[in-house]
User: What shape does this take?
Amino acid sequence: MDRLDNTVRPYAWGSTTAIPRLLGVEPTGEPQAEMWMGAHPGAPSRTARGPLDEVIGEGPEKELGRAAVAKFGPRLPFLLKILAAGAPLSLQVHPNLEQAKEGYEDEELRGIPISAAHRNYKDANHKPELICALTEFDGLCGFRSPDETAELLAGLDVDSLKPYVDLLHAHPEDAALREVLTAVLSADPDDMAHTVTETAAACARLGGAYAPYADIAHHYPGDPGVIAAMLLNYVQLQPGEALFLGAGVPHAYLNGLGVEIMANSDNVLRCGLTPKHVDVPELLRVVRFEASDPGVLRPEASPDGEEVYATPIDEFRLSRYALAEGAAPYDLTRDTPQILLCTSGSVHADGNMLAPGESVFVPAGEKAEVSGSGTIFRATVVA
Assistant: This one.
């Protein structure tokens, strides 16, 4: 197995302390938002054999296994991260596989450069993802029922929100949600900025269920995404709980430290809480306008000690093991590629001693035996 040397991305929303605390190092004072583990060309993990994307490229079947290459092609189909949100991320949604292929082909035909600020589709892949909390973790996930949102907005007693309250009482439900989101994102910017300012003041005054939106507005004053965020379920995960974000589900992470895994894609359509491009027509094509429970996931324990976070896709499979000192080692050998990540304690992985935040890549079929005292996450694929 290969010990990984991973890149930390300094996005502005990142916590300045959470990742350093996990790694047991001094903070730099700068945001440290995401630590990437995998073979994404934007920041591939480094190994003693070279960058992981190049290692895999030199022998895909040897590193990934014949079944994974046949199913997903000659690259690692997932990206594993430690994510540390110190401020809200952009409100966003991801396309399904068909939408991603159509969007990518269309923008290629129109000659839009991959690096263009208004480019929506960086690749032809979908981007389902899973976030598992390591600390208390706050987020927004999926639309709450229109009636509940109407009640929430009405409670603010802000005149400029009343048209949205009326729209939310309309039927059918999907049309009501579509009309409100369209109206919010298409409103005159100056009028919307005034609405957001009034809404933020009311949220701060009332507190309680409104407090998260006051905090969002503090970070993004005047942004229409503040109102769009109020259409969504607010979720507070406890350590070990997770959320699966499928195609078309609007979401945003607000605060906390977690392990995130996703299909290897950069396709994001933003709904607000960002200075970046918001393509309203394309966003409306991709969003699933249906109220839903956020569906908090808890791991399913198996007899062999593996705790699996079940998801409906095959590009990734995330599980964890709670290791006890003196207990028999777990044999994790598998005919698919794996990344093993320690998040607490001290873990032995075939000669590698892993401290929190340290990880290894295990090629398909290579022996993988772990022991020690702590928690280890296992990322692989279903092939």
